[in-house]
Design a protein that fits this description.
By secondary structure, the chain is α/β, with parallel strands linked by helices. It has six helices and 14 strands. Helices cover 20% and strands 25% of the residues. The chain is globular and about 50 Å long.
């Protein structure tokens, strides 16, 4: 299983899988980690178990969201271990972000183009994972999740380290609905983060918008690791729904040991 590990604290492991060797004649099985794109579920489970072993964990300790492009988040504990690990339907329902203070859990979600946001704070044992697609970004899921943690969990924003993983670029984005009102309702500056095209579609810079939400929460710029790669253009490394339509899924994950 091919994946990129981010530069983190020695007690934190965080990464994103790639599609290297993951496609053969339209089949995504080799490196696909998502149950929802038509691959044999047994193969997907095998892929997940392989990844879990590679980072010295058990798949039964992983927790997945049953993601739905929402702005909702949930605090999870060891009681939630294994949810979504073996079935999409068993994931944490109606949320797109998870956080925890319990050790030896792996928080995870799958994506192809959406912005993966991973974060941790070693002083409080906080870890978290946010799936921020078009809808989640426009609904400010990253700001809502981090603000809640800072305000309600006694976490100092200056201690939070954030990783923004590979995602669809501004220039290759394409929304086919009018998002003008939603952009105007956001609490961060959106003026240079979208373009309305002649056909009524929009280009939107989800990466920059999520970074601005992070900064607005009081997290210092030097605490943000921006892994600025375009899933659309890096076709040898990443799946892209915008590029390919039917495609596999990456997995972004974070755990503390």
């Amino acid at each position: 299983m091919s994946f990129h590990l981010y530069d983190t604290d020695i007690f934190v492991v965080a990464g994103t899988t790639t599609r290297v060797h993951g496609k053969s004649e339209g089949v995504f099985s080799k490196n696909n980690l998502g149950y929802t794109v038509g691959d044999d579920p047994q193969v997907v489970t095998f892929n997940r178990e392989t990844l879990a072993k590679q980072i010295n964990t058990n798949l039964s300790d992983w927790i997945f969201v049953k993601q739905c492009h929402s702005d909702q988040f949930k605090k999870v504990t060891t009681a939630d271990k294994g949810k979504g690990a073996y079935s999409f339907e068993d994931g944490i329902d109606q949320v797109d972000a998870l956080y925890s203070f319990d050790k030896h859990l792996v928080l995870s979600f799958f994506h192809a183009d959406c912005v993966p946001v991973l974060f941790y704070d070693r002083t409080t044992n906080l870890i978290g994972a946010i799936h921020a697609g078009y809808d989640g970004t426009l609904s400010e899921i990253t700001k809502k999740t981090l603000s809640h943690i800072i305000q309600n969990e006694n976490v100092n924003p200056k201690n939070i380290q954030v990783i923004i993983g590979p995602a669809l670029s501004y220039k290759n984005s394409n929304m086919n609905i009018d998002i003008t009102q939603r952009l105007q309702n956001m609490t961060v500056d959106t003026s240079d983060c979208y373009t309305k095209l002649e056909n009524g579609h929009f280009k939107i810079d989800t990466r920059t918008l999520n970074k601005r939400m992070i900064l607005k929460c009081g997290i210092p710029l030097e605490n943000i690791q921006d892994y600025d790669q375009d899933t659309y253009e890096e076709s040898d490394l990443y799946y892209s729904y915008e590029r390919d339509g039917q495609t596999g899924r990456h997995l972004s994950f974070i755990t503390q040991v």
